[in-house]
Design goal:
heterodimer; A: 279 residues; mainly alpha; two-stranded antiparallel ribbon; 9 helices; 1% strand; globular; B: 642 residues; alpha+beta; eight-stranded antiparallel sheet; five-stranded mixed sheet; 37 strands; 26% helix; elongated; disordered C terminus
Chain lengths: 279, 642
């Protein structure tokens, strides 16, 4: 049945899936056999995948005249897109290609999950989502999620390579310093700003839709928990002896909280009462 | 100055929380019920002043903690932990619920520490208050207020302002509900506590009328849906949705079957085409037309089915026979005749038919037959254990008969049914007597009968006065009482063909024709969208149905009018995401009743703290912008706490 479902999916979905898979293999290969592959090759492949991903989103939006960020499937496709987008920006700035392995792997996994969760039919926009705040709220949140995923990757890399080293010129990592700690911090800073904005917009929207800017709904609670975990991470850096490994655990825990907020809320014991579960 | 550690911070916070919790327990069990305000104030004073004195002497210690980042982080961690706990422990449930899931001991613990209402209990909110103070003192002591640190200040004070706004809303806010029906005007709202309507009311000081309520829908769309049975369960999982316009052959995975949508009719109708098959008189059919008031209607009579066409307004009938049938002609009636019960009685090889009436007695040899009851539209009331007739229409005629064998002194009572296959005959007394019940339908009598004989193509005209035979000419018209009858054609063996088509392109009565294939086997099914009955394949392992899409509701819209002192102040369409605002109250579209289109549930919120919260939001937002755009290069922190 899954194969049949896949065969019926949009061509752009299949192509972006294919190219994310290719880019994962190419990024991986780049680090295993460094001299074999020209440097622009992995970037090109993830860029093509990103382009098809963009085309898929633009196509759905244009066809159905409704933003394709309403269902779990649609958000998975969108999450994939934001991860690729933020990754491409980071690669452009830092040339840190090693994250690309994980960014493309994430995209592949996310799209496989999307195949299982594909909407049997396109849905009409329910009344609760017909709000001015809907699009900015969701887009800002997924930008935050994407950045926080990448900080999760750098935090893990930091735990693996904790030493801050000066790298020789022409090193394959193309970095002056090997300093995943500082990358983690910077990416979390970026992600946290969007996370906070998303939270604020959510409050504004909730007031307009339900009369309360905060209702202690499980999804709201977990978005607060996520925000608090990153808040703890950011403040722990002010405390002596906590910058580094110990705060990296909080960066990792933060992304776990993101995943619970995004997917786990549907399975929590308190979820039946949630107004936020995906269809 | 002392060094603050995490351990100490946690310990202090937890002890304080325990103290606050104790206060809440004492308040709930003893003080809440006290009516006398003075006593409450005295008790409050007894707690408050010693505490104040304690805080005064400990002020340096207290400020040390409130200034400490570690203390603030400890607070964050505790708040995070208990927020998480609240998402695992379902909130606001009765004690029995917790007893069932946590056991006796832990459920009592949960109630003791108000873990069933974490986000509302005193100690959790106490944490939030301490947090405000901690934020304040951290902010003012750690960094100087200047342009560079503006974002830092805005963020921290923004959160304090938000918490302050929440406090104001908590104290002076009102949450309520109104069940409204169209045309109703209300000036009171039901207070809602813990998300549940109470019997308490609040006067609005103005009146609200529900003028209209409507549910907006998206354009209807229909889909062919493939379902797969969930193993071990009694439900189906929707697997794939096909647009009715798709024309691909779909192999069903895990099945021997394929299917294809052969045709789609948005506005389905079934029409019949009748054509000639052969010259053998196997299924004769007569085609004629009746012209009345300038409109011509084509009609068909199937000899094997109806035989007759009655036109009551012009008082004539057309009968179609293949050959002349004298008995049929004798029975033509010119006046209405009621239906008759005919009993065919046979004994050995003797046979007799008698017309019987309810309540009468008939003798037949040694037998006496009594008709005890006649039920034209028989049914059995199982509750009252009684036979009865639903109407006078002879839909299911039944007779209750008593038969007495006068020789053997034996009596039998039977039911006999004219239209129930197998029950129209009854054998009695070891097959010595056989009965068969026929119901002769009511006969409509008309002034003129036209009998058309198919074989000879002759028309016989019968009136009460004259019987005439008219040789048929197709172009000739017979005029009776303003109707012109033309005989058009006769097919000795006619063939009926059903044709499916769409009357229009509007989806008024959508239907699809589906071909289901397995091996060489091919079957066609017509599925009608307004009456979804699925096709089941392989013992119900798969189902294919044609249904309307379920998510068709676009919006719920209540038109509300606000009156004050009998003057109309406002008239607004309240819909999801678009509340009505009036004098600090906000009215939200909240509920509807699928069974009652006149009902609309309106939620009402009054929150005087909300603007303070928005101010906090704006401060936080500007603070974030400041950090993002003005500070740009996010600085690594300079101060590191020991």
């Amino acid at each position: 049945m899954t194969l049949l479902v896949f065969s019926r999916m949009h061509l752009f979905f299949k192509l972006s899936f294919l190219f994310y898979l290719i880019s994962f293999l190419v990024y991986l290969f780049l680090f295993l056999k460094r001299k074999w592959i020209p440097k622009y090759f992995p970037t090109l492949s993830i860029f093509i995948a990103f382009a098809f991903n963009t085309a898929l989103i633009v196509f759905s939006w244009a066809t159905y005249k409704q933003p394709p960020i309403r269902t779990l499937y649609e958000t998975l496709v969108f999450f994939t897109w934001t991860v690729a987008f933020i990754y491409l920006i980071i690669e452009l700035i830092t040339k840190l290609r090693i994250i690309g392995i994980f960014a493309s792997l994430f995209s592949v996994i996310s799209l496989i999950y999307a195949i299982f969760k594909v909407d049997v039919d396109r849905i009409n926009l329910p009344a609760a989502l017909q709000s001015f705040w809907f699009i900015p709220h969701v887009i800002i949140y997924f930008i935050a999620y994407a950045a926080l995923f990448l900080s999760f990757v750098t935090a893990i890399l930091y735990l693996k390579f904790p030493d801050k080293k000066k790298l020789p010129k022409g090193h394959w990592l193309e970095q002056e310093f090997l300093d995943f700690e500082s990358y983690t911090y910077k990416i979390i800073n970026f992600g946290f700003i969007f996370l906070s904005l998303g939270l604020l917009l959510g409050g504004v929207w909730a007031k307009e839709a339900w009369g309360d800017y905060w209702g202690w709904d499980p999804k709201e609670n977990w978005s607060l928990i996520t925000w608090l975990v990153y808040l703890i991470y950011l403040h722990l850096r002010f405390v002596k002896g906590w910058r580094g490994k110990r705060s990296a655990y909080f960066a990792i825990a933060g992304f776990v909280a993101v995943i619970i907020t995004y997917l786990g809320v549907n399975v929590l014991p308190s979820a039946q009462e949630s107004l936020h579960t995906y269809q | 100055m002392r060094r603050v550690t995490f351990k100490e911070s946690f310990l202090i916070l937890l002890i304080l929380a325990l103290f606050v919790n104790l206060c809440q327990i004492i308040y709930k069990s003893y003080i809440q019920t006290i009516q006398n305000r003075t006593i409450i104030l005295v008790i409050f004073g007894f707690v408050f002043f010693p505490l104040l004195t304690f805080f005064y002497f400990m002020r340096d210690e207290i400020f040390t903690y409130l200034k400490s980042v570690k203390f603030a982080i400890s607070l964050f961690m505790l708040i995070t932990f208990f927020t998480i706990l609240g998402t695992f422990l379902v909130q606001d449930q009765p004690f029995e619920f917790y007893q069932k899931y946590l056991g006796n001991f832990f459920s009592k613990i949960a109630i003791l520490f108000f873990l069933d209402t974490i986000y509302r209990n005193w100690w959790f909110n106490f944490f939030l208050i301490i947090l405000s103070f901690s934020l304040f003192f951290c902010t003012v002591t750690k960094k100087k207020l200047n342009w560079k640190e503006l974002g830092f200040y805005l963020n921290h004070f923004g959160i304090i302002v938000i918490l302050l706004g929440a406090l104001i809303g908590h104290i002076w806010g009102v949450k309520g509900y109104m069940d409204m029906f169209i045309g109703e005007t209300k000036n009171k709202i039901n207070i809602v506590e813990r998300g549940v309507k109470t019997n308490k009311f609040v006067n609005l000081g103005f009146e609200v009328e529900l003028v209209k309520f409507r549910i907006e829908e998206y354009n209807p769309e229909y889909r062919v849906l493939l379902y797969k049975h969930k193993p071990g369960k009694d439900t189906y999982k929707l697997a794939i949705s096909y647009k009715p316009e798709e024309r691909t052959l779909n192999k069903i995975p895990g099945s021997f079957h394929s299917f294809k949508i052969l045709d789609y009719y948005p506005d389905f109708e079934r029409i019949e085409i009748i054509s000639k098959k052969s010259e053998k008189p196997l299924n004769p059919v007569l085609k004629f037309s009746v012209e009345k008031n300038g409109t011509i209607n084509e009609k068909w009579i199937f000899l094997n089915e109806d035989k007759s066409y009655f036109d009551l307004s012009s008082n004539f009938a057309i009968h179609f026979l293949w050959e002349k049938d004298d008995e049929f002609l004798r029975n033509l009636s010119y006046e209405e005749q009621a239906g008759k019960n005919l009993l065919e009685i046979s004994q050995n090889s003797m046979k007799e038919e008698i017309y019987v009436e309810n309540g009468k007695e008939y003798k037949y040899g040694d037998f006496i037959i009594r008709i005890l009851g006649f039920y034209p539209d028989f049914t059995y009331d199982a509750e009252r254990k009684q036979a009865l007739s639903l109407s006078d229409e002879p839909k299911n005629p039944a007779l209750r008969i008593e038969i007495e064998d006068s020789k053997a002194k034996e009596t039998n009572r039977i039911w006999i049914f004219a239209k129930v296959g197998g029950f129209e005959r009854q054998s009695l007394f070891n097959n010595r007597l056989n009965l068969r019940y026929k119901y002769l339908e009511h006969k409509r009598g008309v002034k003129t009968h036209l009998v058309f004989l198919g074989k000879t193509k002759e028309i016989l005209r019968f009136g009460r006065e004259k019987n005439v035979s008219i040789p048929m000419k197709p172009e000739e018209k017979i005029e009776i009482d303003g109707s012109k009858i033309s005989f058009l054609d006769v097919y000795p063996e006619a063939e009926r063909k059903e044709i499916y088509r769409s009357k229009s392109s509007n989806p008024l009565n959508p239907a699809v024709l589906i071909g289901v294939y397995s091996g060489d086997n091919k079957e066609q099914y017509l599925l009608v969208g307004n009456n979804p009955e699925p096709i089941f394949l392989e013992n119900g392992k798969f189902a294919i149905s044609f249904e309307r899409k379920s998510d068709e509701i676009k919006d719920y819209v209540s038109t509300l009018k606000v009156y004050k002192n009998d003057k109309e102040m406002k008239s607004t369409e309240v819909e999801v995401n678009h509340p009505l605002k009036f004098e600090g109250y906000e009215f939200y579209q909240s509920n509807y009743d699928p069974k009652n289109p006149e009902y609309s549930g309106i939620q009402i919120v009054k929150d005087p703290g909300v603007n303070v919260v928005w101010l906090g939001f704006v401060m936080l937002f500007l603070g974030l912008l400041h950090i993002f755009f003005i500070k740009r290069r996010i600085l690594l922190p300079e101060v590191i706490e020991e």
